[in-house]
Design brief:
The structure holds 2 protein chains of 2 kinds. Chain A is mostly helical. Chain A has helices spanning 6-30, 48-53, 56-88, 92-103, 110-121, 126-133, 147-172, 175-183, 188-217, 220-225, 233-242, 247-274, and strands at residues 33-35, 41-45. Chain A has 12 helices and 2 strands; from the N terminus they run αββααααααααααα. Chain B is α+β, with helices and mostly antiparallel strands. A 6-stranded mixed β-sheet of chain B has the order 6-7-8-3-9-10, sandwiched between helices. In chain B, strands 13-17-14-15-16 form a 5-stranded antiparallel β-sheet. Chain B is elongated, with a radius of gyration of 27 Å. Chain B starts with a strand and ends with a strand. The A-B interface holds A 174, 176-177, 179-187, 190-191, 194-195, 198-199, 276-278 and B 48-50, 69-71, 75-77, 79-81, 83-87, 96-97, 100-101, 144-145, 148.
């Protein structure tokens, strides 16, 4: 593994082991530990946290979270692909400007950007005030603290994760292959369907994976923009660690979430492979 | 069948193709030949519909197609790097065009099998392009195009990515294919050998202009411009009374000075009666033009035809007409009858290429006829071997048929007037 560029690979590898593998193993181990009445962790192993997770309440939240994540992924794809396509067709200089604009929001803390949405969307917020001043509505619209707001916030926050990989695959796409399709009688639409889309699937899969995983575990958006009943699995986990002080239960939930996400991604790749595409990696 | 009428292409203020017209005949193999950047690929892409000309008209069978998108044109293209679809098998690649045109499945299958058989690809039908060799990929690209039975097949340097041996083989295959199918071919290449070997007609392009259109023979034997003369095959350029003439290496005769002296003796023996009859002034250093020609043919003795060599008995200067005169070499003087030419120099190098002997002669510094290298050729590897300078003349003859030469030997170079081609620049 360390044969070529061994030194170069060593530090990132060490980094991954220390900060990724070790915590993951710890979390998995923790999820089988017994919890004391004061939240302390006892040196005993148990399956009780997983048994407790089987409760329809938690399974429902998990399922909701996966559905929301899938919806966010789909929306990001529908919005992000055309945007990436548009960017890839610009001149080099304009592409740089567009990419900068796509990345720009990252320079501001995600929490702050979520609160910015609150200022925009709440009952006395910018949007409702403007609409009422214009006389288009008489009552403030319920734009915030519901599932739609959560979806909006997530799509907003995660869109760049879709746009960037798709853009890269579009950029790498050999124009001549597209020309070959036109030459062989494909209209622009069919050329897109039969050549561009399959050849940029690796980018789509990468983007979808990033968006799906990020949105499955997200807790900031539901917390800030969601209603009382919009708790997602991310919030529950956060709650177990920070408020309920039930680390083993939170860990068990994390493990289940991770496995569920992996399963969804595997399904996605499987579907892609049977469709005859190329693996992204 | 394809007519280009005053087609011009500019990208911004850069002129890629100056207004030009060209007619492609039904069923012919027409090659656009030129160095990179000459506009040949752009011209092909205009015919294919990938570029719209800035002005001018493209006509197919008399109907303007200038603004027709490529997917509505009855032509197909073989791309330079094939542009095969990497996510499709060989079979799917070949079927693509027929699928887009929604041909009935039976017809698709029939044509697919035909194309696979014709290109010997049957056993690779389930492979993806990256599992094929370069030559096989090239054949897929051809099969993918011809399966649509286009009126015209456009080929953009289809063999340039292959090694020499394979290229030679596929040239023959492509030529046969064109003959079998009777499809009109428009072929783009920078390889003049390839163009000569395959084409019915060649359009030589340079800097966005078609310099000459003609059969390979015409292009080779009667180049009209300096560029054509230098780009197609090897050539020697000489300045002659304000015009530039080209003489092919195979028409340049290199004669060692020792042989010249012998030729002179033989000539004198043979033509003394003539000379006596002609003029008593022969020894005074003046020789009539026809006398010189006579001398050349009499002394030929198996040497190249028409090397008009004459000698002045006293080493005087002999000049005839426009030809330059040569002096300073005691006992050896070239006089060219009418327009023939010659010069003196030193053998710089001798190279054997197959059965041919190539001799590089460095012409003496005071020779007025200059073999010319024009500045824009200098860095183009396909036109000139590097390091070539304008005072080197190349001669080419059948190895062994002429007197042996040594490096550093003093020689005279000679050519006959009928082998001079006058060029316009």
């Amino acid at each position: 593994m360390l044969r070529r560029g061994g030194i170069l690979a060593f530090f990132p590898l060490a980094w991954m082991i220390v900060f990724f593998v070790v915590p993951t193993v710890l979390v998995v181990l923790l999820s089988f530990r017994k919890r004391g009445t004061l939240g302390e962790i006892l040196p005993e192993y148990t399956l009780e946290h997983y048994r407790r997770l089987a409760d329809p309440l938690y399974m429902g939240i998990l399922l909701d979270s996966l559905i929301v994540a899938a919806a966010v992924t789909l929306l990001c794809l529908v919005l992000g692909y055309p945007l990436a396509y548009h960017i890839s067709r610009q001149s080099r200089r304009r592409q740089r400007v567009w990419l900068f604009l796509v990345i720009l929001p990252f320079m501001i803390n995600f929490l702050i950007r979520s609160y910015a949405w609150v200022i925009l969307l709440r009952a006395q917020g910018v949007v409702n005030t403007a609409l009422m001043k214009l006389g288009l509505i008489s009552q403030p619209l319920p734009l915030l603290y519901n599932d739609g707001a959560v979806l909006l916030g997530m799509v907003y926050g995660l869109l760049p994760f879709m746009v960037l990989p798709v853009y890269i695959s579009l950029e790498r796409l050999d124009r001549r292959k597209l020309e070959a399709a036109y030459d062989l009688g494909a209209t622009p639409l069919r050329a897109f369907r039969h050549v561009t889309l399959p050849l940029t699937m690796p980018g789509v899969l990468t983007g979808a994976t990033l968006v799906f995983v990020s949105s499955a575990g997200i807790f900031v958006v539901p917390e800030v923009m969601g209603g009382a009943q919009s708790a997602l699995i991310g919030n529950v986990i956060q709650n177990q660690f920070l408020s309920a002080r039930n680390w083993p239960f939170g860990s068990a939930m994390s493990v289940v979430l991770t496995l569920a996400s992996l399963a969804m991604i595997a399904l996605m790749y499987r579907a892609f492979r049977t469709a005859g595409g190329k693996e992204p990696i | 069948m394809i007519r280009l009428e005053s087609v011009e292409k500019r990208f911004g203020d850069r002129v890629v193709i100056s207004p030009l017209s060209l007619e492609v005949e039904e069923g012919e193999f027409l090659t656009l030949l030129g160095p990179s950047g000459c506009g040949k690929t752009t011209l092909l892409r205009i015919i294919a519909g990938f570029e719209t000309p800035t002005s001018g008209e493209v006509l197919l069978d008399g109907k303007p197609i200038t603004h027709l998108p490529p997917y509505r044109r009855d032509m197909n293209m073989v791309f330079q790097h094939y542009a095969l679809f990497p996510h499709m098998t060989v079979e799917e690649n070949i079927r693509f065009g027929m699928r887009m045109k929604k041909l009935p499945p039976e017809e698709q299958n029939r044509r697919l099998e035909e194309a696979l058989a014709y290109t010997n690809l049957s056993e690779y039908r389930r492979r993806k392009p990256h599992e094929l060799s370069g030559g096989q990929q090239q054949r897929v690209a051809v099969a993918r195009a011809i399966v649509n039975k286009p009126r015209v097949l456009l080929l953009d340097e289809p063999l340039s990515a292959l090694d020499y041996q394979l290229r030679r083989k596929l040239q023959v295959e492509l030529k046969n294919l064109q003959r079998d199918l009777g499809i009109t071919f428009v072929y783009v290449t920078h390889d003049q050998e390839e163009a000569m070997a395959m084409s019915d007609r060649i359009a030589v392009m340079n800097r966005g202009v078609i310099e000459q259109v003609g059969t390979p023979e015409e292009i080779y034997l009667r180049p009209r411009t300096l560029f054509v003369a230098m780009f197609v095959g090897e050539n020697n350029l000489f300045r002659k009374g304000g015009t530039t003439v080209a003489v092919r290496p195979e028409n340049i005769r290199v004669v060692p000075e020792s042989v010249l002296a012998e030729e002179e003796r033989a000539r004198r023996a043979a033509c003394e009666p003539v000379a006596v009859g002609a003029a008593a002034g022969a020894s005074a250093g003046s020789l009539a033009a026809n006398g010189g020609v006579n001398a050349g043919s009499v002394t030929a003795g198996g040497a190249a035809v028409g090397g008009a060599v004459a000698t002045g008995a006293n080493g005087g200067n002999l000049a005839a007409g426009d030809a330059a005169s040569y002096g300073g070499e005691p006992g050896v003087t070239a006089a060219a009858a009418a327009t023939a030419g010659g010069a003196f120099g030193t053998v710089q190098d001798i190279v054997f290429v197959g059965g041919l002997r190539k001799t590089f002669v460095r012409v003496d510094a005071d020779e007025p006829l200059v073999s010319g290298v024009l500045p824009w050729f200098d860095d183009s590897e396909s036109v000139y071997p590097s390091g070539r300078d304008r005072r080197i003349v190349i001669s080419c003859d059948t190895a062994g048929s002429l007197p042996p030469l040594r490096k550093g030997e003093r020689v005279a170079i000679r050519w006959a007037p009928e082998h001079e081609v006058t060029l316009s620049c």
